[in-house]
Every structure is written in C-alpha cells, then in structure tokens.
Design brief:
This protein has 371 residues and is of the alpha/beta class. It contains 10 helices and 14 strands. The strands form 3 sheets. An 8-stranded parallel β-barrel has the order 1-2-3-4-9-10-11-13, surrounded by 7 helices. A 3-stranded antiparallel sheet has the order 7-8-14, covered by helices on one side. α3 (101-114) links the parallel β3 and β4 (120-124).
C-alpha cells in the first residue's frame, strides 16, 4: 500500500544546523533568546504549512560541551510556540538520561493541554559525563546503559500519561467531586536505577499520549510513534525507514539552499571559515537550488511518511523553504498541510491510544519517585 503524502517537520532551535550559523543570522545576537524572534520563526513555519517544529535542547550549561549555546529550556519555548500558533505541532527534545521521568511526563502532558493536543516529544540522550556532574547523578556510560535509561524513562512517562483515565475529571457540582478517584491508577515501576510509584499530577493529555519521536535503536519501535531515520543516501534512508518497525518514519535531512544573493555552496564556504560542518551518518544532506530539494523529497515520497529538515541557517533557509519548496510540494500533492482543530496525532494519521489502566480498579493518589 502506498504511503500518504509527506508530513513536514523543521528544527528551529538556535540559528541553524551549522555551528557558525549565528554569524549569518538576520537578528542581533541579543535577540536569540527573545520570545519575539521565536514567535516570528514559528509563524513562518506555520504559515508555510509545516506539520510540526522541533526544538533541540541540552541539560549541560553553556560552554561545557561541543555546542556552547545558551538557550531557554525546550519545553518552555515549546509552550510559548504552542500559545502563539494554532495548527503547528510542537515537539521539544528531552533526555531521560539524568532528568526525572515523572517531571518529563508532567511537562509534556501540560504542553499537550496548553496546545490543545499538538504536543510531541523527541526522545534524547545525554552522553557527556559533565551532565552527570551538573545534575549530581552517577555517570551513565556506554550505549547499553544509555539505551536502558531511555527505554525505562519512556516506559515510565507513557504509564504516567495513562495513570489518569480519560473520564477521571468529572467536575460534579451535585456531588462536590472534581475527580473520580477510582479512575486514577498507580504505576509501579522498578528499574535498575530508580523506582516510581503513584499516578501523574496532571490529567491525561488530550492526545492520550503526546507523539513520541525517536531514532531507531534508542528505544523499542513499539514504544515509538515516529522513527527519525537517515543515511548517507536517499536509498539508505528508505532502507532505514522500512526496517524501523515504528508506525511512521521521518527522514532526517540537513538543507542548505540557494538564496537570491548566494548559492548554497558559497554560503557553506563562508561558514566553514569559522567552523566545520561535520557530516552526520544519521542524516541526509542536501545543498543546492530549491528545485533539487523538491526532487529529493519527491524521490522519498511514497517510501517515508515525512521528513524533518535541519536548515543550515534558519533565517536564510526557512524563507526559501516557505516560498519555493513547500508550495511546490503542495501543488504536486507530495505533502499536506495540517488542518485547523486537529491534534498532532490526527494530522499524522495516528490513532488515539486508550489508557492501559482503563480496566484496572486499583487507585492511589500520592505520587512518589526515588533514585
């Protein structure tokens, strides 16, 4: 069965995918953290027809890693984007390597309520030992340990989203009851490094569970809604999508486009004088005219469910995507816009999952988490 038209995502964290992108930004350095700029970028993405935006993050303080960027937390920025848009999905990156799954669950559930069902979550990991010291945690070392923490964290977060049944909030004036306590359920998780008891403190999200995006191999495919796949070539990305096992697969693509004043190659060369743009094996890379990117996306259509684009410089590439790439995709029916009043799950064609505790009558009201 052929796949439906592409869903389009774009990463809008910072100034772009290139480490020196800030040198070509259209704003002054002091505006990077301003809400006005974030709202402006999100508005461009929404008006262009993107399905969702993602917001990268790090739990490391600025200057302690390879990416010395100061940023407002991804969840806080996502909440602001959600409040300033109406149809755009918003998915922050959150790592469960050291952060508490209970807090991640609450943050994302709150984001889904604020956005009326447009929240997603890009599952991340934190490999730098400095993060452990910053959080006062033992260092998580090795691919297996990182995957274990990501898997355990995701399971706990999902269970906490399910811990309130959909009709747990009854708001009964006649009986003076806000909650039906029999519809709140305890989760009882014991992992290698922590345990979690009790329900969430936030009612079940509008989507049931916000959309989970993750790279293959990080967490099991049956816990993932969207696999973020890539490769050195389009054929490798297609093969990765077919083997991902997740309901949906989005190809990861770094893009540098020709602008009215400079070619993509000239722009890259200018930035390379300041820092190298390292090739990532988990992402395709396209540099050239808008028509060439349209051709690449047409090649991928029918083999992947969507793409996540990483612009070289957000202020330069996003306008070209908006004027020359997305309109052509829509005209050729290779991609679709999100519809007003729909949740992110609906836009992506994903069913709303029922709470796994619906048939369970065990209830408890006090959450507890220990490490």
């Amino acid at each position: 069965m052929p796949r439906p038209a592409l869903r389009l995502a774009v990463e809008i964290d910072g100034d772009g995918a290139h480490p020196a992108a800030w040198r070509r930004a259209a704003h002054s350095p002091g505006e990077l953290l301003s809400p006005r700029r974030l709202a402006r970028v999100a508005a461009v993405a929404e008006n262009a027809g993107f399905t969702l935006v993602t917001l990268d993050d790090s739990i490391l303080p600025p200057g302690s890693g390879a990416d010395p960027v100061g940023r407002i937390g991804a969840v806080e920025r996502a909440a602001y984007v959600a409040a300033s848009t109406s149809v755009l999905g918003v998915a922050p990156v959150l790592a469960t390597t050291y952060a508490e799954p209970f807090h991640i669950s609450s943050q994302l559930a709150s984001l889904d309520h604020v956005s009326a069902g447009r929240a997603g979550w890009v599952v991340g990991v934190e490999e730098d030992p400095e993060a452990a010291r910053a959080w006062g945690r033992p260092v998580v070392e090795g691919a297996d340990a990182l995957a274990r923490e990501a898997h355990d964290g995701l399971r706990v977060v999902r269970d906490l989203w399910d811990s309130w049944e959909d009709d747990a909030v009854i708001r009964s004036v006649s009986t003076s009851r806000y909650l039906d306590r029999s519809r709140l359920h305890a989760i009882d998780f014991t992992g290698e490094t922590y345990t979690v008891r009790g329900p969430s403190i936030v009612p079940r999200p509008p989507q049931g569970r916000p959309v989970v995006l993750a790279h293959p191999g990080l967490v099991p495919a049956d816990l993932t809604d969207v696999a973020l796949v890539g490769g050195a070539t389009a054929a490798e990305a297609v093969a990765a999508a077919e083997s991902s096992g997740a309901p949906l697969a989005f190809a990861e693509i770094e893009v540098a486009l020709d602008t009215p004043r400079e070619t993509a190659r000239e722009r890259i060369a200018d930035l390379e004088r300041s820092a190298a743009w390292e090739t990532r094996p988990d992402r395709l890379r396209y540099a050239g005219p808008a028509a060439g990117l349209v051709a690449l996306l047409a090649e991928l259509a029918g083999h992947v469910d969507g793409v996540r684009l990483h612009p070289l410089v957000v202020d330069e590439d996003l306008p070209v995507l908006s004027r020359l790439v997305l309109p052509e995709l829509f005209v050729r029916r290779l991609a679709v816009r999100p519809l007003p009043g729909t949740t992110l799950r609906t836009t992506l064609g994903l069913p709303r999952p029922p709470s796994r505790f619906t048939a369970d009558t065990t209830a408890v009201l006090v959450p507890e988490e220990t490490r």
